Amino acid sequence: MRQLGLLLTAGTLALTLAVTVPARALVVFDPNNYVQNVLTAARELQQINNQITSLQNEAQMLINQARNLANLPYSSLQQLQSSIQRTQQLLAQAQRIAYDVQQIDRAFSTSYATATGSVSNQALITNAQSRWQNSVAALQDALRVQAGVVGNLDTNRIQTSALVTSSQGASGALQATQAGNQILALQAQQLADLTAAVAAQGRAQSLEAAQRASAQDQGREQLRRFMTPGQGYQSSNVQMFH
After folding, report:
1. Is the pTM of this model over 0.85?
2. What angle do CA 237, 239, 242 make, to 5 degrees?
3. Fewer beta carbons below 10 Å: N end or C end of the chain?
């Protein structure tokens, strides 16, 4: 009987403890739920990593765009303009028959006109002197233009070196494009110098050829007058310009 009482007492105590234990102390482990929670957390972490990568890419794009829009710190425009202006000034200083169509037409209707019987002996002499002076002046002008073009070579060399260096060190597309454009401008300036030199040389050659042609024509007229009775020259007036 005593043992039966002890068992009843223990059972009652256990029942009492079971009733008094809080419900939250009873933890039930669910493996499926745990796996789902881990997968959810992993997916959220991956999304965060993707967002960080996207933000990094956008930041790099902005940096690249800023580089592509950055201006080239070097400009050769002022030096190129100065070279072109020097050449233009030399052309504008052309003596006597300059680069003007109306002035050329007037000269060829007078000094270079065909010698006829209506032209006086003094006019023939004056025209011959004028033609000779035109030729000498044109040769001098051509030499001055050529000297100016040669003087620009050192400036062109310096600008070419600086522009090539700037192009190679360009940090973006805009800087590379601007460097390329300035190199093209330099080439255009060199072409303008070449054109000016050719034009000045051609002017001198043309006036020299016109002088020889006019001298031959005048020589024939002078010979005709000398051979024609009553139209002979006085010895002091016989002047030939070849």
Report:
1. no
2. 165
3. N
At how many degrees (to 10) do helices 121-168 and 173-227 cross? 170
What's the rounded Cα separation, in Å, for the pair 128 and 108?
12
Q: Is the pLDDT of residue 185 over 70?
A: yes
Directed axis angle between helix 31-68 and helix 173-227, to 10°?
Answer: 20
Closest Cα partner for 222 from 212, 236, 232, 214?
232
Residues 6+ positions from 214 with CB-CB distance below 8 Å: 111, 112, 115, 127, 128, 131
Q: How many CA atoms, within 13 angstroms, populate the side-chain half-sphere of residue 225? A: 21
Rounded Cα distance between 115 and 118, Å, is 8
Q: Whose CA is closest to 156, among 176, 133, 181, 185?
A: 185
How far apart, in whole angstroms, are the C-alpha atoms of residue 166 and residue 70?
13
Cα–Cα distance between 145 and 86 in angstroms, integer? 9
4-14 pLDDT, tens digit per residue, is: 454 445 455 44
Cβ atoms within 10 A of the Cβ of 34, count?
A: 10
Cβ-contact 211, 134 below 8 angstroms:
yes
Helix (H) or strand (E) holding 175: helix 173-227
Identify the band that residue 229 occupies on the pLDDT scale cut at 50, 70 and 90.
confident
